[in-house]
């Protein structure tokens, strides 16, 4: 082989290698295994039967190991036990995760007058547009249903969970567990669900039988489509403003039913 031929081969070999690499990069790659994202957010299957209660055990979610996305190296960090505890305050209808503590109706009455009566009235009757917490028993099937703690709520532990999570209105989660148990006791008392001498704690609260405990049914509904409407979304129907957030009415102002200006 002449010197010129050897030079051509020496130059051509790397070019062929680069061309082969480029072709390999352009070749279709096997698609990664597709994860059913919707299934990740619908892990629970309802128990059989038409009616459902949160104090009836639901089957555990069937999530295979390794299905959830792995952490990205160098991004974020694992939450500390204290951080997790700060968020992990949800209470189930069967009382799971209720914290230690106790409260009485009398203690709750004083707390209610201080933190709640400005919106809900001294006896939970409601003021202006602020909702009533009592009354409405046996009204849900009427043409004027009143959905209150006593008429509509399904489980007593849920009352504690909501009050602790969202109240007082101006400073949620600012009271102690004992105070939240006491407020729960008072709300249950004004609905004639417990006696005046009952002590409410993590053991007694789940035993309170709510009138609408068996009033919820499972309703099969299609999933909301994950598609944003960008044109002709109202299909010719008029759009009206029913409330303006800038017209916020403070609790106790006696003008909660006023129309926004």
Mean pLDDT: 79
Low-confidence residue ranges:
7-33, 255-261
Main β sheet profile: 2 strands, antiparallel
Strand content: under 5%
What does the oligomeric state look like here? Answer: single chain
Provide the structure class. mainly alpha
Return Rg in Å: 30 Å
Would you count the extended β strands for me?
A: 2
Which strand order spans the largest sheet, edge to edge or round the barrel? 1-2
Q: Could you estimate the helical fraction of the residues in percent?
A: 25-40%
- How far is the first residue's CA from the last residue's CA? 96 Å
Coarse morphology = globular
Number of helices: 7
Write down the secondary-structure element order: HHHEHHHHE
Describe this structure in words.
- By secondary structure, this protein is mainly alpha-helical.
- The protein contains seven helices and two strands.
- It has a two-stranded antiparallel ribbon.
- It is globular and about 50 Å long.
- The C terminus is likely disordered.
List the helices and strands and how they pair.
Layout: H1 3-26, H2 37-40, H3 81-87, E1 102-104, H4 105-115, H5 117-120, H6 156-166, H7 177-190, E2 199-201
Antiparallel strand pairs: 1-2
Helix pairs in contact: 4-7, 6-7
